[in-house]
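Whether sequence alone determines local backbone shape is best considered at the level of individual chains. The sequence in question and its structure tokens are set out directly beneath this paragraph.

***
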Amino acid sequence: MFGKRKTSLLLPTNERFDTLIGKSSEIYGRMVVGDSLRVDGKVVGNIECEDNSKVTVAIGESGEVVGDIFAYRVMVAGKVEGNIYATERVEFHQTAQVRGDVTYGSIGIEHGAKVVGLVIQGIDKKTANQASDLIRAVQDRR
């Protein structure tokens, strides 16, 4: 009855990725994307989408991002070291390793995903940054 589940708890989406960063690729610098992006390599720098666009950023199991991610939807199966701002939805698959604050509209987390940081629902990135700064200031006083 409670055996190991072999399928993902998160429903698969029918995303089309216009930009792919392969396993052997490394990109350094800020990326501004107008269409959905899949990262299987490494990105060092922020990933941002144009305002009011419905861009999905997916980090594959071998993918790594060191920087903040700003997108409509964010799916993580790899590593992220930075804050995530997903205006619609964020998904963390069981192999996800995230170190940073997460601001989201809705969330899905599989058993086994590792998230270290604040998880804040439904507020804009300015308010999320203010909240995380305040919490860190209180923690530093201890």
About this structure: The helical segments are 125-141. Residues 19-141 form one domain. The mean pLDDT is 85.
